[in-house]
User: Fold these one by one.
Assistant:
Number 1:
Amino acid sequence: MSSTGPTDPTTTRFGHTHYTIRRKVLKLIGGAFTVFDQAGNTVMFADQKGFKLKEDIRLFSGPDMTEELVRIHARRALDISAVYDVIDSKTNVPIGALQRRGMKSVLKDEWWILGDGETQRGAIVEDSMALALVRRFVLNLIPQNFTVTLDGVEVAEMRQQINPFVFKIDLDFSKDPAGRLDRRLAIAAGVLMSAIEGRQQ
């Protein structure tokens, strides 16, 4: 399994340094997610179904959902420390895995990026414990910010935008121009975190 690595240079869809993930806040059941590149073009789209015990999110090339690119699949249902496999839908080859850090994420969100042999290769961590506690127990209007590291090196940032109608996360890979972190895995992490945040709100 390869959780990280350079993006295929022929796939311009995943060769950008900035992306934005938008989730419709007012969707009653499930969630609709659109991923845009820095020019505003649609990179991927997902229409998450509601009432599923095991997370299973399919990311398509566009809203017509005719070409499936990536799928995110939880290994177990109702697991606070769930592991999510991210798989290339066309080749059925694993891209990597993401694990939510259970009880740690109750107070401050933390995810692990898993590599071969289920070893931790990286992490996605909320900016500070103080701000995390304020967001959860005082004021939910403070945007979340995350630092993404790989092999001990910061490679990306995720920044939430506060909007009452649309939940947005900006992904910034400007610190990783060589594409060491597979963009598909990072985008999948952003979509997954947006889905979980939607259920918590």
Number 2:
Amino acid sequence: MSTDDKDIIVSVCANCGKEGDEVNNICNKCKKATYCNAACKKKHRHKHKKKCEEHIRLAAERAAKLHDEELFKQPPPAEDCPICFLRMPTLGTGFRYMACCGKVICSGCDYAPVYDNQGNIVAKKCPYCRAPASKSQKESIKREKKRVDVDDPVAIYNLGNHYRDGTNGFPQDYTKALELWHRAGELGYAMAYSNIGYTYETGRGVEVDKKKVLHYWELGAMRGCVVARNNLGVIELCEGNMDRALKHYIITVEGGDIKSLDAIKRMYLKGDATKDDYTKALQLYQVYLGEIKSVQRDKAAAEREEYRYY
């Protein structure tokens, strides 16, 4: 027998034992057992029931395991500031979107003065593309719309926020906001999935759907959104799944989420996490703080009265 002959798989009817290509009637549930016709499938149903249920259970366990491997995998790192090349802060107050060129820069680079070729400080310009700063909110929105036209995911996400809130001259339209967030998410902006999940959680313009909440927050988490993953941690914590909650929180702490660090501290005080867990979280957060620190960012932060999440 040749090697090719050994690789041939012959289908066998689970009821009568018939072999051949015509044995192609597969069990609709487990997709494992094959039969030569519907009659054999019906006759064998009572014998196959337990094995079928076992196949389905094992398949579900394998699917859940693969899903968790993907869900708890370390997400891709956030992009560094394109000017200073330092890690971008997680807090929304730590960075700014530039509608002129579509770049997201850190607050330190936004705060720093811009110089001309002779070293003189010039009027406020974009630190990246040197475009003059917008003179009004209307001009900023006009620039943002131009970025939307070239599929800039951050601009599309921001436009969705305008429709959600009914601000800056936009009518309040949850359907339009949801449409834009979907588009932004598909283009790679993870935060959009957090907003979609929150929409289904609160029922703003849609029916409350907990399955969709979980689905979109998981999409956001796997793409690096710390807000979405923190929300998943809260869900697991409320359901008593402490190990899963801790896994989410550890990942988000590494991503710079202070709320997750506070959550691990509370878990430790209640006995739901170990001292080692809390120590690890503190160390990860200190590493994050060290990577985002700069003199210009500190100066920019000193001028703000409070921090809040984006």
Number 3:
Amino acid sequence: MKVSVWHNNKDIRLEEVTKPEPGPGEMLVKVHSCGICGSDIVEWYRLPRAPLVQGHEIGGEVVQTGELLDKFSEGDRVFIAPKVPCMKCRYCKNGNYPVCSEIRERLPGGYAQYILVTKALIETGTYLIPGSISYDESTFIEPLACVVRAQRLAGIREGQTVAIMGSGMSGLLHVKLAKARKCKVIAVDINGKKLETARQFGADVTVQAEDLASQTASGKMGKADVVMLCTSALPAIDQAWELVDKGGAVVFFAVPDPGKEVIVPINDLWMKEIRILTSYYCGPPDIVDSIKLLESGTVRVEDMITHRLPLKDTDRGFALVANGDESIKVIIRPNE
């Protein structure tokens, strides 16, 4: 079978490897669609494990099952989480599923024609894809689940004002979910084209980043109950401190590269009772909620897909995501 092996963002190679055979309690899944995540192109995060097969936003079909597996059958359409919690440790019991370290197994990279899904991933990380969700749409289950968790941690509720810094794929998912929750949404970006897309997806106010200070100072726009940082740009972080309202929250959904210094005006934030939160992944409840949001059409994602590429064009997909100007969601279809 063919896989796409990542060495760095400009060195991605199509290679032939042996198709795995499922053992007891395992299953073989044919990958129909795998999205390219913004984290896939973050080299400082991925290079220590290179070369590797990337891809963790998967929609696939069970094509072979091993002995002792009765939870899924051949022909089932499935989504598999990139990593799973044990559900038993103190972190899991407290709902901190992303930091569970008891189970270390990870999903094999989805830029491959087939993946072997192990027992641990099957037990707590594999979900049937409802018939109303296409394979391409299923690649949004994990990123939307991450958005669900971040907004839940921030306590976002109906009637609030949510400012989203950065209108890339994740930022636009935040726009869609916040609007579904009947919030006022402010989208901020340096790219006018991205802001136009945010407006089309429901943002009530769109602001060029360089105009944000004057807009905030004038009092015309108002401040935000929650500021969601979906960009790693240091100027956006500085703006977040000015944009968040008293009693509000700033959520780091994206972070700068290691070594870059983030200055937190803690005295000012202390007086205003500002919460600083981080959120990078999701847990089983968030995945369940994500699937329900997609199945019901509460959050629609088909209009976010801009490119569908075969496995041999994975390098082009990475270039599109890294550039960001011509794409929103890029999906690899390994078996086309």
